[in-house]
Specification:
The complex is a heterodimer of chains A (225) and B (453). With 225 residues, chain A is of the alpha/beta class. Chain A has two domains: 116 residues, Rossmann fold (3-Layer(aba) Sandwich), CATH 3.40.50; 95 residues, Arc Repressor Mutant, subunit A. Chain A has eight helices and twelve strands. Chain B has 453 residues and is an alpha+beta fold. Helices cover 54% and strands 17% of the residues of chain B. Chain B contains nine helices and twelve strands. In chain B, the strands form three sheets. In chain B, strands 2-1-5-4-3 form a five-stranded antiparallel β-sheet. A five-stranded mixed β-sheet of chain B has the order 7-9-10-12-11, covered by helices on one side. In chain B, helix 5 packs antiparallel against helix 6, helix 6 runs parallel beside helix 9 and helix 7 packs parallel to helix 8. Chain B starts with 7 loop residues before the first helix and ends in a 7-residue tail after the last strand. Classes of the chains: A alpha/beta (225), B alpha+beta (453).
C-alpha cells in the first residue's frame, strides 16, 4: 500500500516508516501539516496516518480540509491526547480510526492494514465465507462445513470482525472497541475468554482450529490456526 | 477604589439626583407657563366681558347711563381690581380713573399710574380697548398683580421643591454611593484575599439575597469550581509523583540487570516492555480519573439503557469469572434509564466486578444486580468473600488506597476512585457496605427526569 505518514517527531516517524516498509508498504513521510494536505489532495494514497499535532496546519485541520475536498482515503489519527473529548473530536473530524501514543507497533500495523483493506467500499456484505466457515450477517447464523453452530451474540460479533478482516490480524484492543465499544483496557481479559469459548464451539468434533492467536498482538482467521 | 470622582457608584448616584432636579425644573417651568397662560386668559375674559357689557350699555341705554355705569363699577370693589377709561379721539381721557396714555385696540399689556399704591407707582395692567364708533375709545384694564402673584406662588412652590430635591438627592447620592462602594469593597476585599493566596477564602454573602449577594454567590461557585480543578490538578501531579516512582524504579532495575546479564536480553526486554505497559496503564488510569473528576465528559452525556448495559456486562464477564473459579449470577431489572456516558458507567461497573474478582478467593460468589431504589437506578456488585473491615470502608475510594491484605495482588488502587468519580459526575454516588460476609459496592445513578425515547 502507499501510505502517507504525517508526523513531526522524527524518531517516531522513522520507527513507523521502517516498520511499515518491512511489511512491504511504500511510505511517504512529511513533517508539516500543510505538506500533508497538499500531497493528500493531489497524490494517490491508500491510507493516511496523521499526527494530531503538526506544525503549520494541525492534523485535525488537515483531515477536515481533505474531507471537505472529498478525499475519502481512510485516515488513522495518532495522538498523545487520550481524553474522551479528543477521541470524539477526531472521529467527528472524519477520522476512520484513532490511536493514542505510545502504542505497540503491532497494534499500529494491524490498524493500518485494516484501514487499507476497507478502501474499495464494498457493497453491504451480508455473507462472509472462509475455510468452510460461513456467516450469514442478516440471519445471524454460523455454519461450519454445513453444520450450524449456535453462538452467543458477542461470540458472533468477534467472529464477524475476524472474518471481515479476511485473515488479517485483529488486535485485542480493536475487538474491545468494535465488539464492546470500550475504549479502555479492562484488567480482565474478556476478549481471551470469549475467543476461547468461540474456539470450543467452532472446533466441534475435533475440527482444526481456525482462529490463530498472534501472541501479544491479537487474532486472525487462518486455515491452520 | 479611588476618590469620589472616579467612583461609578457616586457618579451614578449624583447623575440620578441631577436628573431628578432637572425633572423638577422642567415640571416647574411647564406648570409655570401653563398657569401663567391660564391666568392671562382668565383676566382677558374678565376685561373683555366687562368691555362688552359697557358697550352694550352704551348702545342700549345711551351715553349718560354708560358713563354712570363706569362710575358705578369703579366704586364697587370687586375681587379683581378693574380700571376704566374713556378717551376722546384726540387722546384725552374724558372719563374713568385709569391713568394711562392712548391705548391700542384689542388686548395688550399696558403701563399705568397706580395712585392707590403711591403717587409715582407705575404698574402693569392687562387692557382691552374698543372703539365706540363716535371716535371715542373705551379701555378696560385689570392690574397684572393678580397674575404676578400666581406666578410668584408657583415659582416659590417649585423653588422650595427644587431645593428639597437637590438636598435630599445630594444626601441620597452620598448615602447610595457609599452603600454601593461598601458592598463592592467587601467583594473586592474577598478577591484581594484570594489573590493574596488563600483560595479557600469566599465572598461575603448577605442575608438579603439581593443582586450583590447573587453576584457574590456566583463568584463563590466559580471559586469552588476553580478550587476543585486546582485540587484535581494538584492531586494528579502528586499521584504521578507518588505512584509512578515504584513501577519506574522496577523498570530501571530490570534494565540494569539486563545490562549486566546480556544472555538474558530478550527476557529482560520483554519484562521491561511489560513494566512500561504497566506504567502507561497506570498513567492512563490517573488521567482518566482526573478527566472524569473535572466534569468535562458531561457534555457527551446521552440517554443510557442501564439494563442493557448491565446485561452486556453480565454476558461479557460471566465466562471470565467462571473460568477464574468463582460463581457469577446476575439479576437485572428491565427498563432502567439514566442520563450519562455509557462507556464510563461500564468502566466503573467493570472496576467493581474486577475488584470483587481480584480480592476474593476462588469459590466466591459474585452477583451483579441492576435495580431501582427511589430516585436512583442502582448497579450493585456483591461478593461473599473476606470483605473490607468497616473502618476501612470510607478510605478505599481514595486514590492509591491498597489494603494490607491486597498488597500483593495486581491493580493500582484507582478502580474505586474511578467508580466514585463516575458516580459523582452523574449526580449519584458510590456506596460501599459490609455484605456480611463480603463487600457490597453500589453505584447509584439518578433516573432521567423525563425519559426520552
Amino acid at each position: 500500500m502507499r501510505i502517507l505518514v504525517a508526523e513531526d517527531d522524527v524518531q517516531t516517524a522513522e520507527f513507523i516508516k521502517r516498520g511499515l516498509e518491512e511489511l512491504g508498504h511504500r511510505v511517504i513521510h512529511v513533517e508539516a501539516g500543510n505538506d500533508a494536505l497538499r500531497l493528500l489532495l493531489t497524490g494517490d494514497f491508500d491510507v493516511a496516518v496523521l499526527d494530531r499535532m503538526l506544525p503549520k496546519t494541525d492534523g485535525l485541520s488537515v483531515l477536515r480540509r481533505m474531507r471537505a475536498a472529498e478525499v475519502e482515503i481512510p485516515v488513522l489519527i495518532l495522538t498523545a491526547l487520550g481524553r474522551i473529548k479528543d477521541r470524539v473530536d477526531g472521529l467527528e473530524a472524519g477520522a476512520d480510526d484513532y490511536l493514542v501514543k505510545p502504542f505497540a507497533f503491532s497494534e499500529f500495523a494491524a490498524r493500518v492494514n485494516a484501514l487499507g483493506r476497507r478502501r474499495p467500499v464494498q457493497p453491504e456484505t451480508t455473507r462472509l465465507d472462509m475455510f468452510g466457515l460461513s456467516l450469514d450477517l442478516l440471519k445471524r447464523q454460523v455454519e461450519r462445513d454445513g453444520t450450524s453452530i449456535a453462538l452467543q451474540n458477542r461470540e458472533f460479533r468477534i467472529l464477524e470482525e475476524l472474518m471481515r478482516e479476511g485473515g488479517k490480524v485483529v488486535t485485542r484492543t480493536m475487538l474491545l472497541e468494535r465488539v464492546w465499544n470500550y475504549h479502555f483496557d479492562p484488567q480482565t481479559n474478556i476478549v481471551e475468554t470469549h475467543i476461547s469459548r468461540l474456539r470450543t464451539k467452532l472446533n466441534f468434533g475435533g475440527k482444526p482450529d481456525l482462529i490463530e492467536t498472534i501472541r501479544g498482538v491479537g487474532y486472525r482467521v487462518s486455515e491452520h490456526g | 477604589m479611588g476618590n469620589w470622582r472616579s467612583s461609578t457608584a457616586y457618579r451614578i448616584a449624583f447623575a440620578y439626583s441631577a436628573a431628578v432636579a432637572l425633572g423638577v425644573i422642567l415640571l416647574g417651568a411647564a406648570i409655570f407657563w401653563a398657569m401663567h397662560a391660564a391666568f392671562t386668559r382668565q383676566l382677558d375674559g374678565i376685561i373683555m366681558g366687562e368691555a362688552q357689557g359697557l358697550v352694550t350699555e352704551y348702545r342700549m341705554e345711551g351715553r349718560t347711563a354708560f358713563l354712570e355705569a363706569i362710575k358705578e363699577r369703579e366704586a364697587s370693589k370687586s375681587s379683581t381690581n378693574l380700571y376704566y377709561a374713556l378717551f376722546r379721539s384726540d387722546g384725552h381721557r374724558i372719563a374713568g380713573n385709569l391713568q394711562t396714555s392712548w391705548p391700542p385696540l384689542g388686548r395688550h399689556d399696558i403701563k399705568f399710574l397706580d395712585v392707590a399704591e403711591g403717587p409715582n407707582d407705575i404698574d402693569e395692567a392687562r387692557s382691552f380697548a374698543v372703539d365706540l364708533g363716535s371716535g371715542e375709545r373705551l379701555v378696560v384694564a385689570a392690574d397684572r398683580e393678580w397674575i404676578e402673584q400666581g406666578d410668584e406662588t408657583v415659582l416659590t412652590v417649585f423653588g422650595v421643591g427644587l431645593a428639597a430635591a437637590i438636598v435630599i438627592g445630594g444626601i441620597g447620592a452620598v448615602a447610595f454611593g457609599s452603600y454601593l462602594r461598601s458592598r463592592l469593597r467587601s467583594i473586592s476585599a474577598g478577591a484581594e484575599a484570594i489573590i493574596a493566596g488563600d483560595l479557600r477564602e469566599r465572598m461575603p454573602v448577605g442575608p438579603r439575597g439581593d443582586e450583590f449577594d447573587q453576584v457574590a454567590m456566583t463568584l463563590n461557585r466559580m471559586l469552588d469550581r476553580i478550587e476543585g480543578l486546582l485540587e484535581n490538578l494538584r492531586q494528579v501531579s502528586s499521584d504521578i509523583a507518588h505512584d509512578l516512582r515504584t513501577p519506574l524504579t522496577r523498570l530501571r532495575n530490570a534494565l540494569e540487570r539486563g545490562l549486566s546479564d546480556r544472555d538474558q536480553s530478550a527476557t529482560v526486554i520483554e519484562d521491561a516492555l511489560n513494566r512500561v505497559d504497566d506504567v502507561l496503564s497506570l498513567f492512563a488510569a490517573i488521567l482518566r480519573v482526573a478527566e472524569v473528576e473535572s466534569g468535562e465528559t458531561r457534555r457527551f452525556f446521552a440517554p443510557v439503557d442501564l439494563s442493557a448495559l448491565a446485561l452486556e456486562l453480565a454476558e461479557s464477564y460471566a465466562p471470565a469469572i467462571q473460568d477464574g473459579g468463582r460463581a457469577f449470577t446476575s439479576s437485572i431489572k428491565p427498563n432502567l434509564h439514566v442520563l450519562g456516558d455509557a462507556e464510563l458507567i461500564s468502566q466503573a461497573a467493570i472496576n467493581l466486578i474486577e475488584n470483587a474478582q481480584r480480592h476474593t478467593p476462588s469459590g466466591t460468589s459474585i452477583r451483579l444486580t441492576a435495580a431501582s431504589s427511589g430516585k436512583f437506578a442502582t448497579l450493585e456488585v456483591v461478593d461473599n468473600g473476606p470483605g473490607v473491615p468497616n473502618a476501612e470502608l470510607g478510605r478505599i475510594t481514595k486514590r492509591f488506597t491498597r489494603l494490607e491484605a491486597s498488597r500483593n495482588t495486581s491493580g493500582h488502587g484507582l478502580g474505586l476512585s474511578l467508580a466514585d468519580a463516575v458516580a459523582k459526575i452523574h449526580g449519584g454516588k458510590l456506596v460501599l457496605k459490609d455484605a456480611a460476609p463480603g463487600l457490597a459496592a453500589t453505584i447509584k445513578l439518578p433516573f432521567v427526569p423525563n425519559p426520552s425515547k
